[in-house]
Design a protein that fits this description.
The chain is mainly beta. Helices cover 11% and strands 37% of the residues. It has helices spanning 6-13, 17-28, 134-138, 207-210; strands at 47-50, 53-61, 67-75, 87-92, 104-110, 124-130, 158-160, 170-174, 187-194, 197-206, 216-219, 231-241, 246-256. The chain starts with 5 loop residues before the first helix and ends with a strand. 39% of the residues are buried.
């Protein structure tokens, strides 16, 4: 799989961040407005604006310092006045991220959906939980991915649904998912890779599903092997709190591997 030239990556991580990111976008055939900027290394929390609302990340740990939840809380306004073009947000997970296998959260509003056509081409929000550093994500080029993850790195039944997407990676979905058996796509949990390594988890939810204020627990299908030793989630929780008019999307029930 191709990686972006070091010169372009240096621009994106250096003093001329905006110009560098625009150069990265041009290299991959993307509009600069569709590219997420990396967060500041000095940031202690991740916050962003989407639609008419705000979104912030969080990491909860228990009394022993083990992760108990990693995710985002966003106001109901996030689902209102969403633009016709994509909006990416690259958000820090704060100082407790080091207690998890995750480095940052990449949230992406996709108004026209994406491949594969007829499946995920509905307006939705992606919540990408990255294992790899933000600079590795930014170095990910678009193109045919000829490096599949090692056997056991994906849950049984997961298969490739995209080639490498610029600044993201390759996406894998569960072949048993209802969207592949006649039901419309509403929400799904994907795995992602780059250069043969699992680099992110991706929870996708349509705006139409989210506005119905769901309260749901999704069991995460587990692989045989994991990117590194550490604690990994077994559940995805999606909740709406009517008292605060906020949504909570979180990885929970972590198990040591």
């Amino acid at each position: 799989m191709r990686r972006l030239p070091a010169s372009l990556l240096f621009l994106a991580l250096g003093g001329t961040l905006v110009a560098g990111t625009a150069a990265l976008a041009a290299h991959n055939g993307w509009n600069a407005a569709a590219v997420g900027l990396p967060f500041s290394s000095s940031s202690t929390t991740g916050t962003g604006v989407l639609g008419n609302g705000t979104i912030r990340t969080f990491v909860d740990v228990d009394s022993a310092g083990r992760p108990s939840a990693v995710g985002a809380i966003f106001t109901a306004g996030v689902l209102e006045n969403l633009p016709a073009t994509g909006v990416p947000l690259s958000l820090s997970l704060g100082p407790d991220a080091s207690r998890t296998p995750f480095t940052h959260l990449y949230v992406d509003w996709v108004p026209m959906g994406h491949a594969p056509g007829g499946v995920y081409d509905r307006p939705h929000i992606d919540f990408h939980f990255y294992f790899s550093p933000v600079w590795d994500r930014l170095a990910t080029a678009a193109g045919v991915d000829s490096q599949p993850p090692a056997p056991g790195a994906l849950p049984v039944g997961y298969f490739k649904v995209t080639e490498s997407v610029a600044f993201m990676g390759t996406h894998y979905a569960d072949s048993a998912g209802p969207e592949f058996h006649g039901a419309p796509f509403e929400k799904v949990f994907l795995y992602g890779s780059h250069e043969g390594k699992i680099t992110f988890y991706d929870f996708m939810a349509t705006r139409a599903w989210l506005v119905n204020k769901p309260n749901l627990v999704i069991r995460i299908k587990q692989p045989v092997s994991y990117p590194t030793h550490g604690y990994y989630p077994t559940e995805m929780h999606v909740n709406y709190d009517s008292a605060t008019a906020t949504y909570r999307v979180a990885l929970e029930q972590f198990v040591s591997h």
